[in-house]
Write a sequence for this structure.
């Protein structure tokens, strides 16, 4: 007998009809002889609606009360799903976060799970019961309701998998699995059977929507293999697993992109130690994430140009902060461009393939795609291009690295 | 310093704008130097919507999970209201039923409150905080969420008044108080300043919509005076109080009516002991409430006619049950009429006024209104009339007993 955690997202329980469907998937997995713990998100749209309500009350709505408010969404979906499972003739019950309890820190609206009490639920599921837990919510040491932040239901699933020592963690979605790229960008996108945590992390950060990066990270840290499954077929689409368990036949696993970038260049900054810190310190303090950074030394060795990218919504704030600091930075001029996008090739297989960078650049070059900036990691190469050629870039690289 | 419980119903918190308004009423009562505990219902329509969802899942939705589902409604309204109060610059927090805890029995969907723990909240409000509690919900000894049934928020308010020994229990509504009759029936309906628990109970049972009978009963048992207040003016409209504290200047306090009656007559039933029990036993077993009963002995002393009323929606079921039992009852024929209504005069002052019955009947008689059945209690006289004259009957009695 295996012990499974099955997680269903908001779209999967977005209507009564869909909740019935989920109940049938749960039923099937249970009838196959498994012990089942279900994690469920709020019905699609509910959390946003509650956030909207709280914003109408106050732009600065109390975070503790916001957690009380938001946790109601999963309370509704988990009780409805439990009722549906009972309606199919099975023994089932819901446990709210405080009933389990799922103990978290007191960092309201983005709490971290500290511990999950397991004995009561283990007794229930080993007696043939199906346990339904709302995702996203917990309870702090002060006995207040907490939430884990956006995408928190995935985190709940991973934590449940860890504390209940389940045999697998199944994340059900509307797509058939993780794809080699966004099918909206390139029709030849294909399902990836196995992907490492690290690759998935890059895919997620860069725009793949199956699982939140923070949840991939949690499964990586705890080495909990995740099965991404399709709600319609019920079958495993993609397994997210340790790199050591994958035989890499291809250099590149997937092509990710983002369309939310802006590029800033400070021209003629003094080329001396500490200048980069001086540029980025005020940005960091203001929660602006810097993505790519390039520093090009000037020929005279005294002045340098610093180029970096930020999220597009942070552009104006960034420019303001930089300009406020010019008395220290003393740059000659500032140039910015918010019509840029980033495309990345991701693959654990590229570590042992030194020719990958050349292959990528020549492929883009042969399509007249200009590279504005580059950043690399062990399993990823990202380049910045003009926004209007992003689709062409994705298609070119998808084909070049034999993913079509 | 006084300690108050303020209860707001679903229509009073039916929108964000209304929640803001409620927050301002709470603020005002707090600034007047009172310790405040707020009880709040779910936003208007929410509970019905959740019940509808559960019905779509299963006609026989699990009652324990239904309580988890339904309690989410008050969770939303109480956290929103708390956020609104904090937004006005006050110290406030919500406590869910399980956090207080409000301990109930395990009779899911219609639980009774056993005990409320008070120390944590008393500390909070005596430190100047405003406590917001969701009405309608509690927690059972088995650590499961329970609900108190329809109108349960009033029950929560009365129980909080009792366990926290508050100085008053304020029930806020959309109307200006309890009226002498339904203004939709008679424009000259006037606000009643003071009404006894017993009178209110009769008014409530017979159709006044301010407070559920079960909550009036609870306040009567615990002798907790209730102030019915208007959300728009914030002022006390009607005080529901012990009869001994009211000076009765009028015989009749109010005129109630119901339009949901049906009359059944069994003609020619044997006039022997036990026959009434034989008629009503199967009805009671099937949860059909009998209201008025009249037995008229036949002239020969052997046969009798039995007339009684039931709720209109129970008519068909009642007829079926009676017919199934005719082998024992052996009646001659059965007559029924679902176009009847009941009008009642209510007043603790009538006990000492023997002429009231005559006055009522003659008033109706002078308007050619035929009386089909009568029932009386110490503080109430009800008569059954044809539905089409009910408004005329209400107006006639309202005038006759000097309520206009």
């Amino acid at each position: 007998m295996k012990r499974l955690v099955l997680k269903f997202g908001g779209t999967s329980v977005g209507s009564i009809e869909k909740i019935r469907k989920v109940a049938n998937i749960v039923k099937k997995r249970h009838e196959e002889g498994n012990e089942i713990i279900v994690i469920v998100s709020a019905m699609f749209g509910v959390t946003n609606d509650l956030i909207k309500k709280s914003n109408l009350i106050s732009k600065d709505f109390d975070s503790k009360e916001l957690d009380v408010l938001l946790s109601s969404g999963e309370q509704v979906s988990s009780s409805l799903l439990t009722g549906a499972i009972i309606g199919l003739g099975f023994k089932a019950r819901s446990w709210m976060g405080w009933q389990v309890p799922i103990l978290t820190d007191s960092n309201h609206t983005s709490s971290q799970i500290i511990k999950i009490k397991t004995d009561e639920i283990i007794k229930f599921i080993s007696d043939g019961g199906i346990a339904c837990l709302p995702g996203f919510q917990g309870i702090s040491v002060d006995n207040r309701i907490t939430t884990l932040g956006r995408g928190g239901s995935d985190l709940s699933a991973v934590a449940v998998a860890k504390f209940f020592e389940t045999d697998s963690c199944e994340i059900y979605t509307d797509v058939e699995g993780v794809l080699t790229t966004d099918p909206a960008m390139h029709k030849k996108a294909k399902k990836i059977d196995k992907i490492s945590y690290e690759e998935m992390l890059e895919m997620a950060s860069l725009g793949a929507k199956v699982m939140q990066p923070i949840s991939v990270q949690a499964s990586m840290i705890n080495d909990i293999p995740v099965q991404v499954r399709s709600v319609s077929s019920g079958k495993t689409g993609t397994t997210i697993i340790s790199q050591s368990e994958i035989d890499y036949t291809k250099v590149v696993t997937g092509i990710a992109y983002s369309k939310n970038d802006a590029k800033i260049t400070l021209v003629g900054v003094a080329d001396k130690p500490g200048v980069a810190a001086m540029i980025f310190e005020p940005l960091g303090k203001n929660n602006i994430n810097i993505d790519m950074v390039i520093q090009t030394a000037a020929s005279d060795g005294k002045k340098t140009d610093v180029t970096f990218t930020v999220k597009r919504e942070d552009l104006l704030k960034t420019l303001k902060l930089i300009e406020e600091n010019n008395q220290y930075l003393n740059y000659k001029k500032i140039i910015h461009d918010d019509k840029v996008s980033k495309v990345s090739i991701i693959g654990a297989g590229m570590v042992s393939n030194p020719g990958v960078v050349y292959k990528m650049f020549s492929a883009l070059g042969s399509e007249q795609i200009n590279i504005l900036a580059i950043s690399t990691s062990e399993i990823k190469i990202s380049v910045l291009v003009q926004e209007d050629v992003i689709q062409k870039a994705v298609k070119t690289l998808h084909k070049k690295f034999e993913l079509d």
